């Protein structure tokens, strides 16, 4: 997820990326190589993949970069010649690169694809149902193959510091709605501009939980400022956050439970071009361990190591795979 969700209008306005396909190989050769060396894990390389070129793409925010590196390292350890096109500027750039074939594979969020790329106005709040709907639509429209999703769900929520949690007793959005009913001025909630007007953001949240949005003071801030201000608790008693952002844990924020499941599901899953997967179906088996290993808790920890501790995202991703026995480091 980027710091803002990409709306359909912005998607249509995005500039198309230049498509320059090579005659051989399954990807472009205009990216760099994997950022750090890796060697095969106990399973060794995959003979059918040895020497095959593939381009991995991703988005330019912490979780997007880490996700790209996880895919890159696993494919490289399997024997593929990986070209790195992680850190593409925003969701639209990554999506367009994938659709046009400039990128062969990467990780994406189900909710982003469903609402921003495929143009649907209403989310499907059942995670499996959302993934299946995206899988079927992208297969039919673009021959993009969605592999089984992880349980990572980088969706919206509100957070508060420990003192506010103790003082108000708020733990769920239903509790938050009750606080708004009784004392709206004490529910000062900081948010981004886009969230404040999105149907799957502030207006829809107020409708779903039955409170008056206009009664709540809602300072508009940039994401980085929201996290810091919420941790202090003066300007922002509550703040809009993303559930797997490392700053949530790093700043010891308490995240509200979406007890009525209002927010869309943003499960992280691998997406690969159909012709690539048809030619090299072994790719799915190589990446399959990520489905069970990647959880919100795991992703928060990796994000925190980058955003709070200042570590290199490539090193964080490689460490994780090495600890899980999926790659080795000489």
UniProtKB/TrEMBL annotation:
Gene3D superfamilies: Osmoprotection protein (prox), domain 2, Periplasmic binding protein-like II
Taxonomy of the source species: Bacteria, Bacillati, Actinomycetota, Actinomycetes, Mycobacteriales
Boundaries of every ABC-type glycine betaine transport system substrate-binding domain copy: 53-323
KW Signal (keyword) present: yes
Pfam families: OpuAC
Signal peptide: 1-23
InterPro entries: ABC_Gly_betaine_transp_sub-bd
Key words of the record: Signal
Molecular function per GO: transmembrane transporter activity
Protein name: Osmoprotectant transport system substrate-binding protein
């Amino acid at each position: 997820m980027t710091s803002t969700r990409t709306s359909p209008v912005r998607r249509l306005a995005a500039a198309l990326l230049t498509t320059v396909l090579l005659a051989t190989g399954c990807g472009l050769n205009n990216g760099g190589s994997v950022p750090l060396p890796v060697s095969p894990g106990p399973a060794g390389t995959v003979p059918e993949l040895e020497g095959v070129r593939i381009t991995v793409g991703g988005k330019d925010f912490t979780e997007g970069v880490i996700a790209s590196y996880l895919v890159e390292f696993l494919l490289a350890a399997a024997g593929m010649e990986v070209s790195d096109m992680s850190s593409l500027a925003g969701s639209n750039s990554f999506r367009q690169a994938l659709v046009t074939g400039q990128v062969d594979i990467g990780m994406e969020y189900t909710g982003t694809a469903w609402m921003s790329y495929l143009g649907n106005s209403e989310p499907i709040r059942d995670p499996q149902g959302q993934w299946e709907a995206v899988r079927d639509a992208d297969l039919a429209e673009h021959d993009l193959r969605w592999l089984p999703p992880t349980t990572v769900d980088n969706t919206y929520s509100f957070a508060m510091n420990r003192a506010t949690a103790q003082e108000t007793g708020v733990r769920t959005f239903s509790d938050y709605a009750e606080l708004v009913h009784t004392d709206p001025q004490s529910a000062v909630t900081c948010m981004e501009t886009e969230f404040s007007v999105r149907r799957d953001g502030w207006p829809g949240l107020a409708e779903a939980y039955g409170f008056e949005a206009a009664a709540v003071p809602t300072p508009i801030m940039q994401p980085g400022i929201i996290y810091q201000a919420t941790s202090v608790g003066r300007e922002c008693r509550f703040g809009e956050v993303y559930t797997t952002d490392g700053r949530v844990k790093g700043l010891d924020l308490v995240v509200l439970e979406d007890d009525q499941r209002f927010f869309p599901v943003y499960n992280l899953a691998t997406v690969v071009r159909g012709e690539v997967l048809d030619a090299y179906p072994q790719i799915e088996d190589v990446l399959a361990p990520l489905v069970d290993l990647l959880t919100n808790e795991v992703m928060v920890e990796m994000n925190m190591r980058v955003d709070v501790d200042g570590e290199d995202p490539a090193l964080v991703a490689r460490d994780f795979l090495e600890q899980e026995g999926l790659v080795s480091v000489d």
